[in-house]
Each structure stands twice: as C-alpha cells, then as structure tokens.
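seq as requested:
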Amino acid sequence: MLHTNMLHLAKHVPMYVQIAETIRADIVDGTLAIGKALPAEHKLATQFQVAPETIRKAIRVLVEDGFLYRKQGKGTFIAKAKFDLSLFRFFHYKHNDILQTPESIILKKNTAPASAEVAKNLDIAIGDKIIFIERLRLVDDTPVQLENIYVSAHKFKFLMAIPNGEFDTLLYPMYEQQAGIVVASADESISIAKASEHIATHLNLNIGACVIALQRIARNHADQVLEWRCCFGLTDNFKYSVKIK
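struct tokens:
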C-alpha cells in the first residue's frame, strides 16, 4: 500500500512532484518491490485523489530518473538496474562476432581497515572494516580485465561465507539474492593508465603498457554508496560510444 499521508504538506511543490517523491520513498524502503508492477494509473489517480495526467507526469519523472520502466502493453514496473552488464558498453569481447560476458576467477578476498582513499569512495570512516575482492575476467581462457572491488564489511559480511569458486559471474544479482542489496545507480569515470607490475602480470602485458582504467561508485535507491570498483582492461577491447540527443 502506497503512503499518501505526506501529500499536500508542501503546497508550493507541484502535486506530481510530491507523488513522484512518495513513490520514490516507497521504492527505497521496500514497500514497492523491485521488478513488480506499479498499480495502474487510474488506481493511483484514485488513491492520490488527482487527475490521471498528474499521475502520468509523476511516472514520467521516475522513469527518467531510472526508478521505473515501461513495458509496452503491460504497464509500468519498478526498475532493476543491470550495471554489471553495463561495463560491456566499454569493453567489447567477441568470439565469432558474438558478444561475450567474460568468465571470472576470484584471485583474492579478504577484510582490511579502510584506507583514506577507500573510505572516501565508500563514504565510510578511515579504519572501518571493508572487504576487498580482486577478480580476473577471462574470455576463452585469456585474461582481459582485472577488477578491484571494495565494499563495507558491515553491509556485505555474507560475501566472506561464500567460497571463492561459488561466486556468480555477475555480482549485482548475487548481492540482491543473498542480502537484498539492490544497486540502483552508478557513477563511472574512464581514463588511460600505465600497467603496474601487478596488473601487467595478470593481463600478460609489459610493465608500463597502457590500459583502460574504469572506476565505478555504485549506489542504492537511497543514494547510499554500496561499492567502489576499479577495473583495468586491455586497450584493444575498448570501445566508447554515446548517444547524444
């Protein structure tokens, strides 16, 4: 049941914005479950006591913000992010012209106190306990990407109980299935870096060779940081594309 008791409290704020914020809050606190259908527009209009057009404007805001998505002829649904797959907007791995998702090997998984850099990116205190995962991505048994993944040990303690060989290829669905942790948004930055001895060894490169460095900070629907990830990939598999409207 959607919460409507906070409406009309901010009279200077348009009603469709208030409704959008109410629905957003219900997604964040779990009242509206990820992947489930949003009630029909006419039902929402009745519940919120507004015109259907007001509901449509509220839904449009939430679709644009990534909280909802529409299925033609089926309705509007609570969005489930697929940011694990979005890495491959930048790194394209093909075999016989078929795009592939690399396999994964966990090289390292341990706990440690957060350094200043890790604490800043995870929005936690220096010294807080974190989990560090190093993962090698392979296509046809050839190393193509090295990942360093940092998460709060408090939020992600379940990861330490999972044997390294039983990690899923895509981590975000595993976060949700194991602990109900849903990644809703991410900030990414891309740069060129020089391969350190460690990176070069794992990617079969010369020390100092150029690699693509992609950093991502993943957040939940409440905009809280969940994960900081640093990926280093081969330059011959990199492709940047963007649609500008």
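The mean pLDDT is 85.
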